[in-house]
Structure formats: C-alpha cells, structure tokens
C-alpha cells in the first residue's frame, strides 16, 4: 500500500479522499482515475505513477468507498435527509465532475474501470469542453438495469418485482454484505475477476478488505444493489462527441468482450479497442505491463 498524506475534498457536506501523482505547472491536461464497485483509488497503484510521468494524475474514492464518506443510503422514493445519500450514477458523476473543476482545475482525460467507466462517461457530459476524452477499462454493461429486461429470459423478467422488494430490505443487504466482507470471500472473487491468477496477493486483498470494515461500508452496497434504472454506457456514448477508447480483458467473467466489440463497431465516438489476452475484469491491475503502455500512448495522443 502506498504511503501518502490524506487529501480530502469537501463536497456537499461529505469528504472525498483523493491522491495525486505528478506536477501540474507545465501541463494543460490531467488524468482522473475512477475505480469500480468495491474498489478504491489504490486499485490504480500500478498505473498512476507510470502515467503521471506524462501528465499529472488524480485518483479518487467514490462516495461510499475507500477513505471517502460512507453516508446512509437513500433509495428511490425514500425521504431525503441532511445525512443520507442517493448512491446512483448521477451523483457519483457529479462528484467526479465537481472534483475535476474545483481540484484539478484543468481539462481532464477520464479513465474508468467497471462502473467507473459509466460514471466517467456521464461526468464527461457534465464537464463539456473541460473533458478531452474517456478511456473505458472493462466498462460495466449493467445487465440488471430495467432497460436490459428486453434481452432477459421470461423467468428473469417475472422475478424482477420480487427481487426489487428483497433488495430494499436493509437487514438482508447487511447480511449479504457481512458474508462478502471477509478476506476469504474477497480472494475467491479475485480469482474469478483475475482469471490469469496474476497479482492476486495480500496487498490487493487488504486494499479491498480494510475499507469494507468501516462503519458505513454496507450502505454503499445497499444503495448499489437497488440501482435498477440508471445510465447505460451505449446511451451515454451515442451523445458524446469526444473520443472514447476501450481496453478490455478478454476473459472478463461479467462483462463479455463480445459486447465491447459490438459497441466498437456501432458507436461513432469509440476510436479504439484493445483486448488484453488472458486478463479479466481489471486488466489494469492484473496485467499492468500490457495496459500501461496503451494508457501512455493514449494520454500522449490527447496532450
């Protein structure tokens, strides 16, 4: 784990933890790194220092994760209070766009993994001309969204109403989270997410485990599993004019590479797709030796 002075961005009464590598004085562009669900800014530890040699790089903990605030979740239809937070893609995207405007204060290239990809696409829309491009790394396809039901089986469609009732039960989500927030289960998930088996070590397990032991960690999980109607990556990309590049682990167990190929062939803003052989859902961490040169090339092209 990298040693760092804790840096905090005060945002809407919440604390956002972030980390910077590289100097800003002589650069007109910075990268902002957006992690996926259950991860945090340290998931970029094998990439950030490398790419910061080209231009300054910022990694950030989304609300609910890492060292950022973990407020009580507010579900759709529930009353807003001064303490709760609606964990959804719009709010996370506003977090990234506000951070870029108020902390980075320069045009940005957004790089997102998994749900961080969807968040980056929406944040790019919010930033307008202050975002110069997006790099998606195994972007979440969000198959549980209601808009995806048209592609689901009759059984999946029929159980959706009951599923929504169950996921709203906080006692159930807390129990599910408690069962998952242990080192044994995390290692089991990592073996699936990193199919080559590379770079699964105690440092990575600790990186994911320790934030899950914080008092409010279950709230982000409760909010996330209740997101059934939100942004989908293809819808966002069809409205973008800036370049989008994709990097994809070919053996991702959750986000099939065939979908990325389809996006690449049908969405005009997508300028490239690089498939990382034998890698899974997080190729930037599983195979940084293959991903970092691609990131360096794309960042150099954007500067």
User: What general outline do the C-alpha atoms trace?
Assistant: globular
Mean pLDDT: 94
As laid out across the biggest beta sheet, the strand order is 1-2-4-3-5-6-7-8
Broad CATH class: Alpha Beta
Helix content class: 40-55%
First-residue to last-residue Cα separation: 30 Å
Number of domains: 1
Q: Can you name the CATH architecture?
A: 3-Layer(aba) Sandwich
What is the helix/strand order? Answer: EEEHEHEHEHHHHHHEHEHH
List its salient traits:
303 residues, alpha/beta, Rossmann fold, 40% helix
Give structural notes.
The protein has 303 residues and is an alpha/beta fold. It has one domain (7-302): Rossmann fold (3-Layer(aba) Sandwich), CATH 3.40.50.1820. It is built from twelve helices and eight strands. The chain has helices at 48-51, 89-104, 115-127, 154-167, 170-180, 183-193, 202-212, 217-224, 233-237, 257-266, 283-286, 288-302; strands spanning 7-11, 14-21, 30-34, 57-60, 108-113, 131-137, 244-249, 270-276. Strands 1-2-4-3-5-6-7-8 form an eight-stranded mixed beta sheet, sandwiched between helices. The longest helix is centred in the first third of the chain and has 16 residues, at 89-104.
């Amino acid at each position: 784990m990298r040693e760092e002075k804790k840096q905090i961005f005060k945002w809407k009464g919440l604390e956002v933890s972030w980390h910077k590598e590289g100097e800003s004085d002589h650069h007109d562009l910075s990268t902002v790194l957006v992690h996926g669900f259950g991860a945090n800014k340290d998931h970029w530890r094998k990439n950030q220092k490398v790419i910061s040699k080209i231009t300054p790089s910022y990694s950030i903990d989304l609300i609910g994760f890492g060292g950022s605030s973990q407020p009580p979740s507010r579900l759709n239809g529930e009353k807003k209070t001064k303490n709760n937070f609606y964990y959804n893609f719009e709010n996370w995207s506003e977090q990234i766009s506000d951070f870029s405007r108020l902390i980075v204060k320069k045009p940005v290239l957004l790089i997102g993994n998994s749900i961080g990809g969807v968040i980056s696409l929406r944040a790019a829309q919010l930033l307008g001309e202050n975002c110069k491009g997006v790099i998606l790394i195994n972007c979440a396809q969000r198959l549980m969204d209601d808009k995806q039901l048209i592609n689901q089986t009759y059984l999946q469609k029929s159980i959706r109403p009951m599923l929504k009732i169950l996921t709203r039960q906080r006692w159930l989500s807390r129990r599910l989270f408690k069962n998952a927030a242990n080192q044994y289960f995390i290692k089991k998930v990592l073996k699936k997410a990193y199919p080559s088996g590379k770079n699964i070590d105690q440092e990575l397990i600790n990186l994911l485990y320790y934030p899950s032991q914080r008092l409010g960690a279950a709230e982000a999980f409760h909010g996330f599993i209740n997101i059934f109607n939100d942004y989908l990556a293809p819808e966002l990309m069809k409205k973008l004019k800036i370049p989008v590049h994709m990097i994809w682990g070919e053996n991702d167990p959750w986000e099939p590479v065939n979908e990325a190929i389809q996006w690449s062939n049908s969405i005009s803003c997508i300028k490239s797709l690089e498939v990382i052989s034998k890698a899974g859902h997080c190729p930037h961490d599983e195979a940084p030796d293959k991903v970092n040169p691609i990131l360096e090339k794309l960042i150099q092209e954007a500067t």
